[in-house]
Amino acid sequence: MIPTLVENPHRRHNPLTGEWVQVSPQRTRRPWQGQVDNLPSETSPSYDPSCYLCPGNARASGRTNPAYDSTYVFDNDFAALLADEPGPGALDHKLLRSAPVQGQCRVLCFSPRHDLSLARMDVDATRHVVDLWAQQVEELGQRYQWVQIFENKGELMGCSNPHPHGQVWALDELPNEPRKEAVCQAAYFSDRGRSLLLDYAHLEIEREERVVALTDGWVAVVPFWAVWPYEVLLMPRRQVAHLPNLADDERADLTLILRRLLRLYDRLFDTSFPYSMGWHGQPCQGGGDGWQLHAHFYPPLLRSATVRKFMVGYEMLCEAQRDLTAEAAAAHLRSIAEQE
Question: Is residue 275 situated within a structural domain?
């Protein structure tokens, strides 16, 4: 590693979005006198009669969940997107623009057990989640351009219910972040005839500096351009457009590396690690040259289970900034794996 990248302030380029992040390694020595969060209780029953996601319980809509014993999907009772709704009328100034958007939102319950997380579920149960993700993309992708699978885990990430679950939002337009990734991946593919992220995965495996976990089919890295302290990018090691295109052995391998990564997170600060994660794959209604499937993991914790990274001030007004280098974060996660 170049010494200036370890010691001196610099900016790093994200080729996937075209944006920059400022890195300030020397700031890791500063004392912390900011907000310290209280740890939420991690003792939960396997079944909570007041939980609207547990099997057999009533939801806010008045509907009752079935007595499901694996994964369970239902249309979100408070959906952010609606199907077949008319768009807004024309506005009276060219600076005031709006556009109609239609879509569908679902809740994906990972397990009937209220007290589990993806990190604590067994191999078979985790594989059911992987297959569920792929099935949702395949089904909703027949109608919608973009299908966003994601999970917000933990109170720090705004999760309102600890029951293990994620969401899927499908819509008829390409949102901002995937649009940036589409442009950059297409440009790279046009210039080189290869996938940007597949080339990047091979580079990281070769250099090893930022690799966190590796299997025959997948690699998890703290990306060179990471914004969040322990951000991870998870990628297949062959060209794969989207989740439904994964072969059976790749799904099995994904199950293994998911469990490995999430358990490393939990051991990092000895807490049920909060994060937002989500899958990006090729747009479902065509287009998107050079697209490579990948998952982003964005955890907020910075120094401990009670100290988190905030995106404020300079980050909101200028560009993202981090103190802990991607290499140091990856090394810390690898050191935990070596203790197993």
Answer: yes
Q: Is residue 115 part of a domain?
A: no
Nearest of 32, 114, 35, 30 to residue 72 by alpha carbon? 114
Q: Is residue 155 part of a domain?
A: no
The reply to whether 99 falls in a domain is: no
> What is the pairing mode between strands 320-322 and 19-23?
parallel
**Is 280 among the residues known to form the active site?**
no
> What is the domain count for the chain?
1
CATH number at 236 reads 3.30.428.10
Domain of residue 207, residue span: 176-338
Angle at 298 between CA 240 and CA 309, to 5 degrees: 160
pTM of the model: 0.94
> pLDDT tens digit string along 278-302?
999 999 988 778 999 999 999 999 9
In 3-state terms, what secondary structure has residue 192? Answer: helix
User: What are the C-alpha distances in Å from 89 to residues 80, 81, 82, 83, 103?
Assistant: 19, 18, 17, 17, 18
Q: How far apart are CA 316 and CA 97, in angstroms?
A: 23
Distance CA 262, CA 303 (A): 18
Residue 29 pLDDT: 63
Question: Average pLDDT, stretch 176-187?
Answer: 97
**Catalytic site residue from 13, 93, 163, 165:** 165
- pLDDT tens for 304-334 read 888 889 899 999 999 999 999 999 999 999 9
For the chain, the C-alpha Rg in angstroms (whole number) is: 21
- At 179, which amino acid appears? R
